[in-house]
Amino acid sequence: MAADWIKWQKGTDQKPEVLRMAGILNLDERIIPTLCLRLWAWADSHTADGHAFVAQMSQLDRVAGETGFAQAMVEVGWLEAIDGGVRFPNFDYH
């Protein structure tokens, strides 16, 4: 990711992944992009390449502010559980 900003793509709140996460978490789809931005900003600040060595997914849930959020990201392909942590796919895409 780049510098001190994170790109917002038009229509993010209507992406299929967002709608699916909203259903998984029983949240309004307008909330999901904000929670994603919180987690992506954390990853940008605390990882060099999108790999985070966290002991539990609940640590990322606390960053996002919603229980089950990290697992929902895994389910839609926006986060991958790896040995010893997680990986943010396409971390350097934008």
Mean pLDDT rating: 89
> Radius of gyration, rounded?
12 Å
Overall SS class: mainly alpha
Helix and strand run: HHEHHEE
User: Which percent range fits the helix content?
Assistant: 40-55%
Strand order of the largest sheet: 1-3-2
Low-confidence stretches: none
Through-space gap between termini: 6 Å
Describe this structure in words.
Helix content is 44%, strand content 9%. It has helices spanning 16-25, 32-46, 57-64, 69-76, and strands at residues 51-52, 80-82, 85-87. Strand 2 and strand 3 (85-87) form a beta hairpin. The model has no long low-confidence stretch (mean pLDDT 89). The longest helix has 15 residues, at 32-46. The protein is globular, with a radius of gyration of 12 Å. Strands 1-3-2 form a 3-stranded antiparallel sheet, with no helix packed on it. It has 94 residues and is mainly alpha-helical.
